[in-house]
What does this fold into?
Amino acid sequence: MLFTSVVTSVANRADTVDDFTLRVPIAVDVPAGADPNLDGNTPVGVRADGGTLLTAVAVEPGTPVVRHHTTTESAALLGRDTHLDLALLAHFRASCRVPVTLDLVVIEHRYCGAGTVAAAYRETLGPLPFAAARRVAVVARLSATRIAPTGPHATATALRTAATLTRRLSALLSARGMRATPLSAADLHELTDHLLGPRLAPLSSDGETILQMTPTEATAGIATWRTFALGPDATPSAMRTLSADHPVSTTTLLRLSGPPEAPVLHGLVGTTEVPGSGRLLRSTPSCLDPLDGRQGPALVHRIPVPRLPRMRLPRLVADPAALRRWRFRVGDDGPLIGADPRGRAVTVPLFSSSAHSCGLTGNAEVVALLVLRCIGAGASIGVHSPDPRRWAPLCRLVDDPGVLALHPDHGGGSTGLAVVDLVDETTADDSVLRVRLQRRTTARTWAHIEASAADGSRIDVSFGGEPMTLTGVAAPAELALVDALESIV
It folds into this structure.
């Protein structure tokens, strides 16, 4: 039976901690008979619960972008930034023949991990607010019973409507210069895991996990989740400080519901934290309501489940101008590479796109530093080299095969956000290392980074034929890691 009843339950105890059973319906792919546009395309994954259907679309930039950053602003330096705003989603809702609720979901990781590599990278970042990894998705909910209340073909009709609507949304976003792809059933499961951790609250085979609740947070194992409501005075600029804080990840969710001609807007901000490793939110903007006593239902609202528990949230201004202001950048910033001539930090998404690879050239120390920063930015790297001994010291220094290992020892045992292949293309005649970072073998090279000075003080970035020279920067902790390589034999 496709439409199953799934609920969240709270079992009170005598003390201040409650058990909370988080249940996520299993996703399935819409079958070919109900998806006329399936041939050659990614299947549309769907979750169903109590007559509500849920689908989602992943949104990425058409090409990666090199960006500069200060403590107050970030902007494209090479390439063109892509943004997604609520006004475009409101326009799409108005074009739909069936009522649909849309969530714009933005998940950001400033840096990844909690060990020595992450701590050294965090020291170099200082107070800069940016997202090494940024994941954007649009989640759609629609009522199957309103599409086809009864009849022998009601389920097929509802699924066909959901699949068609999802592909229309994907086409609209693609027409605006984004890479928009419907999420399959497997992708929906992975997105849910990513929103919760990733891999910090593993769901069982039936989509269930047990959390412990207090009035201010939800916990499971080493992980803590806190969820806040956006207050009426919330603005994108007021929340910028979140991008310089230290949780594992921050999720911003804006929800459009109600009549298309008079949309209702609510917003949530959630954090995933590991307090025992110092990965926690240390400062909360005043425009956020902590939702004390409602952390269980609030966490459910953050993840892609079809049916949401009732919860009163502040209503935000939703006129056309306000919807345009809720505008989010699409695509990772990537790891820090250096500083431009004006002293601004420059990031390059070295491994963010599966369709694009990036080349690195430099001496062993500089390349090692960039590889460590990729790990700090979320890469889980498998090294392919004709001379494995060249990489053994760095692997021993990192001492975590989940983020850096020689192939085939890596074996897909990733603990990072993205599995990346490092292909060593150095020849016997080369005086420097030449490597390529890629997520699939058919990726085309879109950028090249060359450390032309032996000490890493000058870094040349070539992007689409546009050259740029940066000054290398590194805090003492990162330099100490690179120096330690010399003592590893």
